[in-house]
Amino acid sequence: MFGHSYPVALDEREAVAVEARPQMRDVIGVSERTTKVGSETPDSAATWVNLMLRIRDQKDETAFVEMFGHFAPRVKAFLMRSGSDAATAEECVQEVMATVWHKAHLFDPSRASVATWVFTIARNKKIDALRKQRRPEPEELTWGPAAEPDQADVIGLQQESEQLGEAIASLPAKQRELIEKAYFGDLSHSEIAEQTGLPLGTIKSRIRLALERLRHAMDQK
Amino acid sequence: MTEINHHLTDELIMGYSAGTLPEAVNLIVATHVSMCDSCRAAVESYDAVGGAVIEQTEKVEVSDACLQGALDLIRNTAWAAPQVAPRAADPVIPAPLLDYVGGSLDDVKWRPVGMGVKQAILATSDEATARLLYIPAGVAVPDHSHEGMELTLVLQGAFQDEDGRFARGDIEIADSDLHHTPIADVSEDCICLAVTDAPLKFKGLLPRLAQPFLKI
Questions:
Q1: The domain defined by B1-216 carries CATH number 2.60.120.10
Q2: How far apart are CA B78 and CA A219, in angstroms?
């Protein structure tokens, strides 16, 4: 379970993380709590964004282990509910989490929460490993360091993601199950899209704005 | 970005986000999204639903060996997915489709289907079929029947049918009831990506046997 301690050579890395902390701390108002390895942290979207930034900017393995503790058991559950056996699921989990690490530079916190980013990587792994298909992805809207997103946009999107999560959690059980089935299984999406009344209006406009800013930044290059 | 008037349905967007659509349908969705920021925002919103679902799902315990394996992979820079050299952007064919046509519009292996209309079947999983259609300016595609859904995305030029006018970036979503006779605009030859979600049916034994080889 997450929260159990990982005995894998963490002590030496703790020192690295503490040293690295001052630059990254408070990036979006997260306290130094994030450097405590293997301990429970509140599941706030901002916590995960800061861990992602530590992975991206410092190649911080301590941050990775903390991310793994939270997301690996969820990704494994997602893959198993999508029809994978436990052994295959663990193999995929390793690759999903390693992809999170190696592609950290592509994570855009003004467009997605870390949970969303992990979900998209896990979904692609599912298509690749379980369905044995290629997954055509939209043309990348890449950004350079000059186009780092505005902190207010990041905070806004992360809060919006949390609110969406809360909205889904508070749906009647039947509707929530429909949504889960849509993402885990092969339930028809027509009824779901119509019936669940997902509150996507605000997050959609927020992402739309982030995309517009990105297009604008690209045009100026 | 050109103005796009015909968009994806929520059903397709959710299916694309959930990862439950056939490969050919994923291809046409990804190609449209490459040209349409409003549908891209919608896809990423549904991705956020996926994020919430994964956040709220019951956890399944992961072994220590799994973490160790992941640590080995992150320390192995050679493991990182091979970086595909970025292709030169094509003015007609968006990136996800380029991979399927072999690099550029010039590489498409067209086959004539009559009236100057040409098509090229793209290799995808067989739950659905993707093809490029080339319709000379001013030409009408003969009334064609298909089972299930047909999605048509305009890449160049424009066509008009009973549902309206479709230009670059527009996607027409037709079910099996729609008998349509698309006519290409006279100004320019029209190139479309078309996806049908049921394999085409052929009469007679010989075409059925030939189908896997000819990929028609």
A1: yes
A2: 34
Distance from CA of B169 to the nearest CA of A (A): 13
Q: Strand B164-167 and strand B158-161: pairing? A: antiparallel
Residue B143, φ and ψ in degrees, nearest 5 = -50, 120
Average pLDDT, chain A: 76
B81 touches chain A (CB under 8 A): yes
Give the Cα separation of B177 and B65 in Å (integer).
Answer: 54
Element (H, E) at B167: strand B164-167
Beta strands in A70-131 (DSSP E): none
| Minimal CA separation from B115 to chain A, in Å | 32
Domain boundaries, chain B: 1-216
Contact A180 B57 (CB under 8 A): yes
pLDDT digits (tens, 9 = 90+) for A160-217: 999 889 888 888 887 788 788 888 875 555 555 555 667 777 777 888 777 777 667 6
Q: B62 and A73: CB-CB below 8 Å?
A: yes
According to DSSP, the β-strands at B164-167 and B183-184 are unpaired
Give me B28's structure tokens.
């046409």
Please tell me whether residue A213 adopts helix, strand or coil conformation: helix
Say if residues A77 and A60 touch (Cβ distance below 8 Å). Answer: no
Q: Which two tokens stand for residue B117?
A: 């209309």
Q: Are A194 and B44 a contacting pair at CB < 8 A?
A: no
A206 with A133: CB under 8 angstroms? no
Q: What is the ipTM of this complex?
A: 0.86
Identify the DSSP state of B157: S
CB atoms within 10 A of CB B72: 12
Q: Which of B12, B44, B49 sits opposite A179 (nearest CB)?
A: B49
Asked if the C-beta of B30 comes within 8 angstroms of chain A's C-beta atoms, the answer is yes
- Six-digit token pair at B170? 């527009």
CB contact under 8 A, A94 and B73: yes
Cβ neighbours for A170, distance < 8 A, ≥ 6 positions apart: none
Nearest Cα neighbor of A104 from A154, A69, A60, A147 is A60
- Cα dihedral: B203, B208, B211, B216 (round 10): 10
Structurally, at CATH architecture level, domain A11-219 sits in Orthogonal Bundle (1.10)
